[in-house]
Design goal:
- With about 230 residues, the protein is an alpha+beta fold.
- It has seven helices and six strands, in the order H-H-H-H-E-E-H-H-E-E-E-E-H.
- The strands form two sheets. A four-stranded antiparallel beta sheet has the order 3-4-5-6, with no helix packed on it.
- A hairpin with a 7-residue loop joins strand 5 (about 180-185) and strand 6 (about 195).
- Helix 1 (about 10-15) packs across helix 7 (about 205-225).
- The longest helix has 22 residues, at about 205-225.
- The chain is globular, with a radius of gyration of 20 Å.
- About 30% of the residues are buried.
């Protein structure tokens, strides 16, 4: 598992040093910087806090490559310790309930019938005499939809590891039968949390997700340097 990450930190640094790296989506967000890896002691205290051993590909990445930084989309959310408590930091990282990380990931979204019923009650502006009344009704509806679609138990056993902008995010499953795989969060567009699949229809693991991003970045950046 460690061999999977051999030379990865150096490859990221080499790409970031090239002007053409600006062509890679999200690079301006993470700036090709990688945080220092975690020590074995830090990993142990992290796992003790969350109550579950991290998936091996992710664990060895944290130990031998970085605690976060350059990576898919706008970068891999770093896991950091503040006031003796560990947490993932990034846009939407707080969607994960850290008290539920040892629970099996449910791999299901909100009750479709409840979603349909809620959509049927979506306020229409023409039904209100005053715009303020419509705004109040819409705000109340939004809160109800958010509470249903983003209920913490729907993503138990998983953490947010990156964002793609426009409230699109990706999760890493830590617990349950989907442990170690990456899931895409389309709830901002009234979608669901669904597994990322490779070309053969197999779930994408953390290792394949990260190295796939790195390989694609190299294909995009390196040819332009050899042609220059």
């Amino acid at each position: 598992m460690i061999d999977q990450w051999a030379g990865v930190r150096e490859r990221v640094a080499a790409l970031g040093a090239l002007p053409a790296s600006s062509q890679v989506f999200g690079g301006f967000g993470h700036r090709w910087a990688l945080e220092e890896p975690l020590t074995e002691e830090e990993l142990a205290t992290l796992e003790d806090q969350i109550g579950v051993r991290l998936p091996e590909e992710y664990r060895t990445f944290l130990r031998h490559v970085a605690a976060g930084g350059a990576g898919p989309a706008y970068g891999l959310f770093p896991v950091r310790r503040a006031q003796d408590r560990w947490r993932w930091e990034g846009d939407g990282a707080d969607l994960a309930d850290l008290s539920l990380l040892a629970e099996p990931f449910p791999a299901r979204g909100p009750d479709p019938a409840r979603l349909d019923e809620l959509r049927a009650r979506s306020p229409e502006e023409e039904d209100f005499a005053e715009s303020d009344d419509f705004d109040d009704a819409l705000e109340a509806w939004d809160e109800e939809w958010y509470a249903l679609a983003y209920a913490p138990e729907l993503t138990a056993g998983a953490v947010v590891v990156c964002h793609l902008g426009c409230a699109q995010r990706e999760w890493l499953v830590l617990s349950g039968i989907h442990r170690g795989t990456i899931w895409s969060d389309g709830r901002a567009d009234e979608g669901d949390v669904t597994p990322l699949l490779d070309g053969d229809g197999k779930p994408v693991t953390f290792g394949r997700w990260y190295t796939g991003w790195l390989e694609e970045a190299e294909r995009l950046v390196l040819p332009s340097t050899t042609e220059a």
